[in-house]
Structures are given as structure tokens and as C-alpha cells.
Amino acid sequence: xxxxxxxxxxxxxxxxxxxxxxxxxxxxxxxxxxxxxxxxxxxxxxxxxxxxxxxxxxxxxxxxxxxxxxxxxxxxxxxxxxxxxxxxxxxxxxxxxxxxxxxxxxxxxxxxxxxxxxxxxxxxxxxxxxxxxxxxxxxxxxxxxxxxxxxxxxxxxxxxxxxxxxxxxxxxxxxxxxxxxxxxxxxxxxxxxxxxxxxxxxxxxxxxxxxxxxx
Length: 215
Fold this sequence. Notes:
Blueprint: H1 3-26, H2 34-47, H3 58-80, H4 97-110, H5 117-131, H6 134-143, H7 148-174, H8 181-193, H9 195-206
Helix pairs in contact: 1-3, 1-7, 2-3, 2-5, 4-5, 5-8, 7-8
């Protein structure tokens, strides 16, 4: 644990809280991609297979439970909540996310740190998380206008990965045997996908204007 990882965890947690606030306070999921939320549910379920076998710390266990529980709750609300599901932008959220799942799993079988059940699913979760935001970004581009809470959700989600890159750099220089190169490369890819969004987010913040993405 270091300050960069803690900051990453907290911004990740804030992004989830912002999304939950949007859904529960407004009873709307407009502007939110169900496909992305389903991918994140896959990510956390695959990554935390060791939840009940390997205890690291109370903090670690609680964060795992929060990420799994919140992702499943968001998917449930968007699919089955009587009011919330009516606002789902089904016509805009058409990204074929199952392709990302298949390609990520295939890559995990071919490129992993150890050919074992847990390590393959860990690598799968890392690869899938790197591209899980794509359906969300495509949906926002198609809709054009981005509401405040949806914009903040994506911003904090991107900031979380940026902090984790700093965490990996810090660990590389302070730990003797840091070798999570799969996380590093995937994290760089994931952060790069946010570059366009960050640019327009900064422009809207600077001009005190509503966030708009080019179609």
C-alpha cells in the first residue's frame, strides 16, 4: 500500500458513489452504458476469485466486496428496477461487448504470468478492464451531450487508473521484485482510451460549459 494506490482506490470508490447517486437520486440511468457495467461485473468477479481463500487485510477484503457488490447492484438496477430501466438508452448502447470478453479471455490464455486457473482469470480481468470503458465512451459520443453526473463518473474512473500508473512506477523503484508488467501495459492502454474524454472534460471545465463530445 502507498499513497498512489490509496488515491486510486478512493477515486475508484468515488466514481462508483457518483454513479449510484445518479441512479438512486434521479431514478435514471440515462447516459450510462449497461454494457460497460456488465463488463466491470465480469472484471471484479474474475479478479477476486481468491476472496474466500486468501486473506490479505481487512481493507483489501472490504474493497473487493464493495466493488463486486456495487457492480452487480448497478447491473441489476439497470436491467430490472421498475423505474430506472425505463431510462436506459438501449438504442445508443449497441457496442458488441461480448467481443471484448472473448478477445480478453483468449489473450489471457496466451499471455499470462503463470498458466494456472487463478492467474488466467486475473490476466483476463486486467485485459477486460483495459477496454471495458469503450461501450460507455461510444454511448457518450453518440448522445453528444453528457450530463454532469455521468461526466464526473467517467472522469473519476479515468483518474483512478492514472493514480494506479503512478502506483506501479512507485513500486517499480521501491520494490525488489515488482513484475506486474501485464497490469502496467494494460493500465497505459486503458488510460490512453480516456485521453479524448479528458481533453473535452477540461475544456468544458475551463469554459464553465456543459460537456459535449464530438459524434
